[in-house]
Design brief:
The chain is mainly α. The protein has one domain. The chain has 8 helices and no strands. The chain starts with a helix and ends in a 6-residue tail after the last helix.
């Protein structure tokens, strides 16, 4: 199954790359296709996150009420989620789907024979790390901006150590990884985050429109 995913990504790079006359453009187009396919899951993830934030005060009351009775707390928490049609696992789906794509892209790029079309813009070879470190910097910036936009769409996620780590640590980690791995992978990560910023704005607008249509009652 894993090799089938890698083969599918390789085929996408080859088809789009040959059609556009550039494997770099092929990777960009393939990235956009992946993001569009994940759009329904991204929308669902954001709705789930927002609903869970709105339920936080009730969850805190349950924790106080059933302190010392973990089993009862778990039962009441599940009832609360069911009453409001919330599935906590739904918030993880986009990442669960995207991680195999990232690893498949990395594997495909390491194996892919770009031939004479390996160069793209300032990059001498998409299969090698960016020698000028331009893409790693762009990947880090794009990751930071997307994290900011995501938090803006979910106000309850603004504070806390975990959020700070995600906000500042993840861009640095992505920048470092992008400097070590093939430039094609850094190109994918940069484009997917830039596209993700616009996608997040669109999702936020859709959720606000849904809330207005429902009279502000998202539960």
């Amino acid at each position: 199954m894993w090799q089938a995913i890698v083969n599918l990504v390789s085929a996408g790079i080859e088809v789009f790359g040959e059609s556009l006359g550039s494997y770099g453009l092929g990777i960009i187009l393939l990235t956009v296709v992946f993001r569009l396919l994940l759009l329904p899951l991204t929308y669902s993830q954001n709705r789930t996150t927002r609903k869970m934030q709105e339920l936080n005060p009730e969850l805190e009351r349950l924790k106080e009420k059933y302190e010392g009775d973990q089993q009862k707390l778990n039962e009441e928490t599940m009832k609360l989620w069911q009453e409001h049609n919330v599935n906590p696992a739904g918030g993880c789906l986009p990442m669960l789907f995207q991680m195999p794509i990232i690893f498949a892209m990395f594997t495909a790029l390491r194996q892919f024979d770009f031939g004479p079309e390996a160069a793209f813009l300032w990059l001498p070879n998409l299969a090698d790390p960016d020698p000028l470190f331009v893409l790693p910097v762009l990947a880090a910036i794009a990751t930071f901006v997307q994290t900011q936009v995501s938090m803006a769409g979910n106000p309850g996620d603004q504070g806390g150590g975990a959020q700070s780590l995600m906000k500042y640590g993840m861009p640095l980690f992505i920048g470092y990884i992008s400097s070590q791995f093939p430039a094609g992978l850094a190109l994918y990560w940069t484009v997917t985050n830039i596209f993700g910023v616009g996608q997040q704005y669109a999702v936020n607008m859709l959720m606000e429109a849904d809330e207005e249509a429902a009279g502000g009652d998202t539960t």
